[in-house]
Write a structure and sequence with these properties.
It is built from seven helices and twelve strands. By secondary structure, the protein is of the alpha/beta class. The chain starts with a strand and ends with a helix.
Length: about 220
């Protein structure tokens, strides 16, 4: 797996990251969602440099111009519900992409007290030979993203996989490196070193789904 840490250099990305982490600014849900969306746009631009292009000739009102156009067939898949603002940011840049959605959440087993991944919904087009952009704002343990990828295999095998994450834990990155195919790219805005006893990223930002849309009913 190839890891791209975009936040290692100073840019506006760090400004948006600071705002989504700030407890006082988090109270404004609209701003939180918009900042996540902006981060998705920045990561999408960086990701676009790794994709495949074809030569095209564009006719302008005054002549012709040889340039390049995206060749890859893109499918954006977000993990509900927290992934929706990030999904929108990615879709703003890959506006011709097909879209997929999957519900996945962590739940403790009452008998073993271990975390399990529950999935209740999947809607996706054919993924065979496509370029899959898998979108989830928080990469904590890596278990959810791995389970999502396994579920998506029913829809075909992508030619290439790009995972787009706002904040990741180092242990989650290590887990994905052992579980996902070699042709996977991981695009991260920032990395935090620690998971707490509840498998939340520290310092992280809290629950991205709750911050974007309110407490889960």
């Amino acid at each position: 797996m190839k890891i791209h840490l975009i936040g290692k250099e100073n840019s506006l990305l760090l400004h948006y990251l600071a705002e989504i982490r700030d407890r006082s600014i988090q109270k404004d849900r609209m701003r939180f969602r918009r900042n996540i969306e902006r981060i998705g746009e920045i990561l999408s631009y960086e990701l676009s440099k790794e994709l495949n292009y074809k030569s095209v000739c564009v006719k302008t009102p005054l002549g012709e111009k040889e340039t390049a156009s995206l060749k890859d067939e893109i499918v954006i898949c977000s993990v509900l519900r927290a992934g929706l603002p990030l999904h929108l940011g990615v879709l703003n840049y890959f506006d011709h992409a097909d879209n997929a959605f999957i519900s996945a959440f962590r739940k403790k087993n009452a008998e073993t007290d271990e975390l399990e991944i529950q999935m209740e919904y999947l809607a996706a087009p054919d993924l065979q030979g496509k370029t899959l952009l898998l979108v989830d704002p928080m990469l904590a343990t890596g278990m959810s993203l791995t389970a999502v990828f396994e579920a998506l295999k029913r829809k075909g095998h992508p030619r290439e996989i790009h995972i787009i994450v706002t904040i990741a834990s180092q242990s989650g990155i290590d887990y994905l490196e052992n579980m996902l195919p070699e042709n996977t790219h991981l695009w991260i805005a920032d990395i935090d070193p620690v998971l707490n006893e509840n498998a939340y990223i520290v310092p992280g930002l809290g629950d991205a789904g709750d911050l974007a849309f309110g407490p889960r009913l």
